[in-house]
Write a structure and sequence with these properties.
Elements: H1 8-21, E1 30-31, H2 33-40, H3 44-57, E2 60-63, E3 67-70, H4 75-96, H5 102-120, H6 124-138, H7 145-165, H8 172-188, H9 191-220
Antiparallel strand pairs: 1-3, 2-3
Length: 221
């Protein structure tokens, strides 16, 4: 059943995204429009629309005369995704911090603690969901809607990557401390320090994931 703001295209996107998160789709695998339409009970039009959007985001790759395939991100593409998100979120958060209240900072700090708990219990989906809420909350007061839109499209890619590699990136304690560092700098309301800290946050993770992807590729060669 559709939620009030959900379209048939959104159902297609959510179905494929959940499949990527759950490992039902593998990098390089072909995604068939006809199979999706049948499985979801939809016509081809919204399926085609959803596939086009996933291609534009970079989660799928369209090959002319062949079809749509799950994208395989190179280490450089992984770094670029994280660096770009860091630039966008860093700027947006530096603009938004002045309007944030102490109560909002306390909620962010509480989210960092819950992320540590979720990681310690290997609750990957909960960890990803909490991370998404945390980072969106940083710049919710930013009035630049284009920044929100671009950050949202990149978040799908980096959440997939983090979901796949997080266990080899940081301990539960490190996850909490890295996010509390952001909370503390947001409390300072120093725009330059906020932007620098958030950009560094994403730069470090992007490079670590890229290194893991290189190792994985070498092991599979």
């Amino acid at each position: 059943m559709l939620s009030p703001k959900e379209t048939y295209k959104d159902i297609v996107i959510r179905h494929i995204y959940d499949g990527l998160m759950e490992g039902r789709y593998s990098p390089g695998e072909k995604v068939l429009e006809s199979v999706l339409a049948t499985d979801l009970g939809l016509s081809r039009a919204p399926v085609r629309e959803g596939l086009r959007e996933l291609v534009s985001i970079g989660l799928l790759e369209y090959r002319p005369q062949v079809g749509n395939f799950v994208a395989t991100m190179t280490p450089q593409e992984i770094v670029d995704t994280y660096v770009t998100r860091g630039v966008l979120e860093g700027f947006a958060s530096s603009e938004a911090a002045a309007e944030m209240s102490e109560e909002e900072f306390d909620l962010l700090d509480e989210k960092a603690g819950r992320m540590q708990l979720a990681a310690s219990r290997n609750r990957k989906k909960e960890l990803n969901d909490l991370g998404e809420i945390f980072h969106k909350s940083l710049f919710r007061h930013c009035r630049n809607l284009q920044l929100h839109k671009q950050a949202e499209s990149l978040s799908l890619k980096h959440h997939l990557l983090f979901h796949r590699y997080w266990a080899n990136l940081y301990s539960p304690e490190e996850i909490a401390s890295r996010h509390r560092k952001i909370v503390n700098v947001m409390r300072s309301k120093n725009p330059d320090q906020i932007e620098k800290t958030i950009r560094e946050h994403y730069f470090i993770t992007g490079n670590r994931i890229a290194d893991l992807a290189r190792q994985e590729s070498g092991n599979n060669a």
